[in-house]
């Protein structure tokens, strides 16, 4: 049995992907059939529960699928207490969400697609928390971001849905890239990409040269994914997604991936002042800002979104504090949050589905028409506010307890912030979970809430109560998860009653504050509402800047102008050659004084021709001037003993000039093509390019080259080719193929001239 | 100077594939002239069959490896791999252009002859072990492609792209030739191993400097041919303007051959002055990836997006070149094979959809294609997923192998930046997928004619190859690992 569970792990993790074709089909059917889909995540939850029991007895498991042996590539998964806690939440909550969605999207033609993306997300999320290889973790991380993009933008006809989806993708995607870079750096510094190997060996990167980069990059990924300040703005905007998505991705699972990452990486890169300081500070600030905004909103989902931001910050802060109590508190809080927040979101979604609004100021008195939903909302709100007997209370006790004992000089400040944030979140809990059902009046639903909509939130909320009353049910799981973060930690004992401690006093104080804030919630909202900070501004500015930059650089680099392209090409060649010259050190300047008059004449011809070609306003003159340059080159060949080359050069130059003249006969003059600054720039470039090539040439002259071909020809002309005239022998024997090629070139050119002449005559006639 | 001996029979066998191709091209030209004015699809089939025959000849030549013509050519695993690769690209191009050309009323034999000649040039390039032969191959290949780019003479865009390609390409080949002249001046040889020996023993500083200048010049020329930054400017204009089957060909065949030359020349001839040119490759790889991906990110036109992305892919391959190891060489080879399959497929399919660019030009135009044209959308998805590098496709192993090679050589930062780049790249490919499958068409999707036999065969071959290399890469991986033994 044990072996079987291990070996099944890869297939189990990937199973949601394998099932996609079936999910699309079944998801399209009527709700009672589509609801069957919820069975598979439930099976997964049972599997992970069984595996958790096994891990508790025999330690973490690792299982892999071999693939490309010659690359040493395999897909491996690693399960310890920490990853299994997340896997349990993902599959357990996932089952309820799939059940809820089957009814939420009943009779909707897009239902199959929705369920399929939901399953793809579930598979990605399981892969993320169970991946063994760091790079596989990154790949699954990005996949969760991409499926989240599809789900936020599910109602793509709405512009705000599209822009919110893109925003979430860009913010979390950028974090994902940071994680990718961190992953490569970790693998390189530690010598392995496999978490199982790194954790088993107890590798720590603290002393690696790249450590500060690694830590900051990992945290950047975690902060963007888990909506920490200043990146938290994407989460409230993502609330435009269908409610099951908000409940599942943006409260219970995906946004916790950042927390998982921080916990997972703690043994490797954590437990340093940089790491703990950053995590604690950012978490605390996020907690405060989120809680503050949560009571200012009137849209139910935005209230819940900001309180989620706050809770994520709180858990992050606890992970930063990093003591055993703090980590245990973080994980208990995280589990409690998944239950009550998922439940509250589903309540909000059902209200919108049945009543048509999620504005808290318009909703009231619904407890009579929706009693089951009211119970679910109330239970979830109690857990969130930390009322005794609920799991939320247990989490809060651990929070206060760990802050009282730790945090150094900042401890009291953190404690104060935690109490304040908890009080605000408690008020938000009742605003979202109870105020729609309290009081009287308000809109009335058209019919009874279907069981498939009411049951999932009720189950989630009730789970919080059950776990609160009987903490022994989960403390084994939490203990295993804590030891996944901190190594072998002593077993965690959760209990309902700790005695009359300062912590209990703080809890009671918090509850009193909650009562006050909730009683006067309308006044509080009116005071807080105008006080907002625009964190989105940075994002908008950065995007706009990037757009402008890419537009500008595309225009500059890729304007389509041939002239600019040639200019770049020439600049680079000139620059490269100069760089080589300078970096290699300039050899002694060669002696250039013994120039013969005829050589100087050839040089003058070349230079004069080139200058005249560049300056001339008539195409014909330009072509003829270029011809002069060519003749000058031919003359050089002649002077330095290559008569065959010179002959070819002369004929090719002549033919080219003739063809050019014939072709351009009707376009004799050109106007000025550019302004003087451009001409100046071009001539500077020409001088740079010509100068660098000339400089190299001069140094070549100084270098002693091993080439002495002429001797070979002189020696072998008679014995090998039986000819005394060396030039003839070279032309018709040693270089017979060259000569044939030259003849071919000349005949082809002549054919071209003939064709042009014929064309001219035909056009005339 | 070697003696005047006639080549042995085995040397002719080693040169057999190129011989077949040149004869084939000539035969097609003659047949074109004598068969009148009808569409020349049958010449396309002849060209495909002839390229297949050349591939058989290459396999046959592989059974007797060694040098030919005084060491100017060499037949080894490296040569055979690249020969087969460029022939495959040729066959796929020919098969996928018949229908396109008929529709554009340009189905003449010249097109097929030019493709065959260009492939012959590439074949010479990859088999040469000597700079002049390499240059001749480069010119044969390039001149044919200049004409191909402007093959639709009535299309001003195509003509503009052909002229640009011709002028800039001439500059680039001139630089290659200039580099060859330098290296001959510095070492007295154009044969790669002899150059290496001369560079190794170069006592004076001048000699080393000359070799460095030559390397720089050849780097510019070859960098242009593989469309690596900063010599990439021509690529988007040309790929967008040229007929789609030609863009497919340009982005796969000449590029593969130029990379083969890059490896041979720089590893064998300039291996010992590696520290001098490694930074060039490093910078060029990074620039290519970054410019290609970020420019592709903002493109609305699908063809231009693919053009920019091909620059990015050249950048990934340059990363493997920078690694300078046998693993790196093997990674280059594998990636080029994967890239040829997926990119030829993507361009050919896009050409079928867009015709000469009158429809399906913008990413948004593809909305609803998933339900309107299930087969085309499914094939396009396979190619795009492979271009992203999603597991189970060829592109995944290609990227994995490249970055593994880079890491093994200690290029940590280049790997990091390269991986970030490929993550950026994923977004613009995914955008196309999302639009195809997740959006409904705003208006009626124009009907697309059925895939003809040749195009269908080419596309299925590309997609099957992409998946096969992604699921069972073993045989090809083993072959490239065995063949990646350049003379160092």
Explain what you see.
The complex is a heterodimer of chains A (765) and B (488). By secondary structure, chain A is mostly helical. Among the domains of chain A are: 300-519, no CATH class; 559-588 and 672-705, no CATH class; 595-670, no CATH class; 708-765, no CATH class. Chain A has 32 helices and two strands. The longest helix of chain A is centred in the first third of the chain and has 32 residues, at 159-190. Chain A is elongated, with a radius of gyration of 39 Å. The model of chain A has no long low-confidence stretch (mean pLDDT 87). Chain B is an all-alpha fold and 488 residues long. Chain B has one domain. Helix content of chain B is 77%, strand content 1%. Chain B contains 20 helices and two strands. In chain B, strands 1-2 form a two-stranded antiparallel sheet. The longest helix of chain B has 32 residues, at 156-187. Chain B is globular, with a radius of gyration of 22 Å. Classes of the chains: A mainly alpha (765), B mainly alpha (488). At the A-B interface, α7, α8, α24, α25 and α29 of A face α7, α9, α10, α12 and α17 of B.
């Amino acid at each position: 049995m044990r072996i079987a569970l291990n070996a099944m792990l890869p297939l189990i993790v990937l199973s949601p992907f394998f099932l996609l074709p079936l999910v699309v089909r079944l998801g399209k059917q009527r709700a009672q059939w589509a609801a069957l889909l919820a069975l598979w995540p439930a099976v997964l939850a049972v599997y992970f529960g069984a595996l958790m029991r096994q891990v508790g007895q025999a330690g973490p498991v690792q299982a892999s699928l071999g693939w490309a042996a010659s690359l040493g590539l395999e897909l491996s998964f690693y399960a310890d207490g920490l990853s299994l806690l997340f896997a349990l939440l993902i599959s357990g909550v996932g089952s309820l969400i799939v059940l809820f969605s089957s009814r939420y999207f009943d009779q909707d033609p897009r239902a199959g697609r929705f369920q399929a993306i939901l399953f793809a997300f579930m598979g990605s999320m399981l892969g993320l928390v169970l991946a063994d290889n760091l790079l596989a973790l990154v790949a699954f991380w990005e996949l969760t971001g991409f499926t989240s993009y599809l789900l936020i933008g599910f109602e793509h006809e709405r512009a705000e849905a599209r822009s919110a989806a893109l925003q979430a993708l860009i913010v979390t995607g950028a974090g994902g890239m940071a994680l990718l870079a961190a992953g490569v750096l970790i693998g390189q510094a530690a010598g392995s990409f496999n978490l199982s190997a790194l954790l088993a060996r107890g590798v720590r990167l603290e002393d690696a040269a790249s450590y500060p980069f690694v830590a900051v990059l990992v945290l950047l990924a975690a902060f963007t994914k888990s909506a920490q300040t200043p990146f938290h703005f994407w989460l409230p905007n993502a609330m435009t997604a269908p409610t099951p998505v908000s409940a599942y991705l943006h409260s219970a699972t995906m946004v916790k991936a950042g927390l998982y990452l921080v916990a997972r990486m703690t043994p490797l890169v954590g437990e340093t002042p940089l790491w703990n300081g950053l995590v604690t500070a950012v978490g605390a600030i996020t907690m405060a800002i989120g809680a503050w905004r949560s009571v200012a909103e009137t849209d139910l989902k935005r209230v819940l979104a900001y309180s989620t931001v706050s809770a994520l910050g709180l858990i992050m802060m606890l992970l930063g504090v990093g003591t055993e109590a703090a980590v245990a508190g973080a994980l208990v809080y995280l589990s409690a949050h998944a239950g009550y927040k998922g439940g509250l979101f589903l309540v909000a979604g059902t209200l919108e589905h049945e009543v048509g609004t999620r504005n808290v100021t318009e909703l009231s008195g619904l407890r009579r028409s929706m009693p089951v939903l009211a119970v679910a909302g109330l239970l979830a709100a109690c857990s969130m506010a930390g009322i005794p007997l609920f799991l939320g209370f247990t989490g809060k006790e651990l929070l206060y307890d760990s802050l009282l004992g730790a945090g150094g000089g900042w401890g009291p400040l953190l404690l104060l912030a935690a109490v304040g944030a908890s009080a605000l979140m408690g008020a938000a809990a009742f605003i979202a979970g109870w105020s729609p059902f309290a009081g009287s009046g308000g809109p009335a639903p058209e019919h009874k809430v279907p069981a498939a909509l009411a049951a999932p939130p009720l189950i989630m909320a009730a789970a919080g109560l059950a776990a609160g009353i009987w903490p022994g049910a989960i403390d084994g799981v939490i203990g295993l998860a804590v030891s996944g973060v901190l190594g072998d930690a002593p077993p965690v004992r959760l209990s309902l009653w700790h005695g009359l401690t300062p912590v209990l006093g703080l809890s009671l104080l918090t509850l009193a504050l909650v009562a006050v804030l909730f009683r006067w919630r309308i006044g509080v909202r009116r005071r807080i509402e105008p006080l907002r900070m625009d964190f989105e501004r940075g994002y908008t500015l950065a995007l706009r800047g990037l757009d402008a930059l890419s537009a500008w650089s595309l225009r500059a680099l890729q304007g389509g102008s041939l002239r600019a392209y040639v200019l770049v090409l020439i600049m680079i060649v000139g620059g490269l050659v100069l760089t080589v010259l300078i970096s290699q050190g300039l050899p002694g300047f060669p002696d250039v004084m013994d120039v013969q008059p005829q050589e100087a004449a050839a040089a003058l011809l070349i230079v004069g021709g080139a200058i005249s070609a560049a300056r001339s306003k008539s195409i014909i003159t330009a072509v003829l001037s270029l011809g002069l340059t060519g003749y000058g080159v031919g003359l050089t060949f002649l002077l330095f003993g290559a008569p065959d080359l010179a002959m070819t050069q002369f004929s090719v130059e002549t033919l080219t000039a003739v063809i050019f003249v014939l072709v351009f006969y009707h376009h004799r003059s050109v106007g000025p093509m550019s302004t003087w600054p451009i001409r100046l720039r071009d001539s500077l470039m020409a001088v740079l390019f010509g100068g660098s090539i000339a400089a190299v040439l001069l140094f070549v002259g100084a270098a002693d080259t091993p080439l002495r071909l002429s001797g070979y020809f002189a020696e072998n002309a008679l014995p090998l080719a039986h000819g005394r005239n060396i030039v003839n022998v070279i032309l018709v024997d040693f270089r017979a193929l060259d000569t044939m090629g030259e003849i071919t070139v000349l005949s082809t050119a002549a054919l071209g001239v003939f064709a042009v002449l014929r064309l001219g005559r035909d056009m005339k006639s | 100077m070697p003696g005047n001996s006639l080549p042995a029979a085995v040397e002719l066998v080693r040169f057999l594939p190129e011989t077949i191709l040149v004869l084939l091209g000539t035969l097609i030209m003659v047949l074109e002239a004598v068969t009148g004015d009808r569409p020349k699809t049958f010449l396309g089939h002849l060209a495909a069959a002839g390229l297949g025959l050349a591939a058989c000849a290459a396999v046959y030549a592989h059974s007797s490896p060694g040098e030919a013509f005084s060491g100017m050519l060499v037949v080894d695993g490296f040569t055979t791999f690249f020969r087969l690769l460029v022939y495959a690209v040729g066959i796929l191009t020919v098969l996928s252009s018949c229908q396109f050309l008929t529709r554009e009323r340009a189905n003449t034999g010249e097109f097929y002859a030019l493709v065959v000649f260009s492939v012959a040039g590439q074949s010479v390039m990859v088999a040469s072990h000597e700079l002049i032969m390499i240059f001749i191959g480069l010119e044969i290949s390039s001149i044919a492609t200049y004409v191909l780019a402007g093959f639709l003479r009535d299309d001003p865009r195509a003509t503009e792209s052909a002229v640009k390609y011709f002028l800039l390409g001439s500059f680039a080949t001139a630089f290659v030739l200039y580099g060859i002249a330098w290296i001959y001046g510095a070492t007295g040889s154009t044969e790669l191993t002899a150059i290496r020996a001369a560079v190794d023993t170069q006592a004076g500083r001048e000699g080393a400097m000359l070799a460095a200048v030559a390397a720089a010049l050849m780097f510019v020329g070859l960098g242009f041919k593989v469309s690596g930054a900063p010599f990439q400017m021509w690529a988007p204009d040309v790929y967008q303007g040229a007929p789609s089957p030609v863009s497919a060909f340009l982005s796969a065949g000449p590029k593969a051959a130029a990379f083969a030359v890059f490896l041979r020349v720089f590893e064998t001839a300039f291996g010992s002055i590696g520290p001098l040119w490694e930074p060039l490759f490093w910078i060029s790889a990074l620039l290519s990836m970054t410019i290609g991906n970020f420019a592709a990110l903002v493109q609305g036109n699908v063809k231009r997006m693919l053009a920019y992305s091909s620059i990015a892919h050249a950048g990934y391959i340059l990363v493997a070149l920078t690694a300078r190891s046998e693993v790196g060489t093997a990674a280059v080879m594998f990636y080029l094979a994967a890239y040829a399959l997926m990119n030829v497929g993507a361009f050919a399919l896009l050409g079928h959809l867009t015709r000469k660019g009158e429809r399906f030009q913008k990413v948004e135009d593809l909305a609803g294609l998933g339900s309107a044209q299930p087969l085309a959308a499914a094939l396009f998805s396979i190619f795009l997923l492979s271009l992203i590098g999603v597991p189970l496709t060829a592109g995944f192993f290609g990227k994995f192998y490249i970055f593994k090679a880079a890491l093994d050589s200690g290029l940590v930062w280049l790997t990091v930046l390269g991986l970030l780049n490929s993550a950026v790249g994923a977004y613009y490919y995914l955008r196309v997928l999302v639009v195809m499958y997740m959006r409904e068409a705003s208006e009626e999707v124009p009907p697309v004619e059925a895939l003809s036999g040749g195009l269908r065969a080419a596309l299925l071959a590309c997609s099957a190859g992409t998946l096969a290399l992604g699921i069972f890469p073993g045989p090809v991986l083993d072959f490239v690992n065995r063949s990646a033994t350049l003379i160092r």
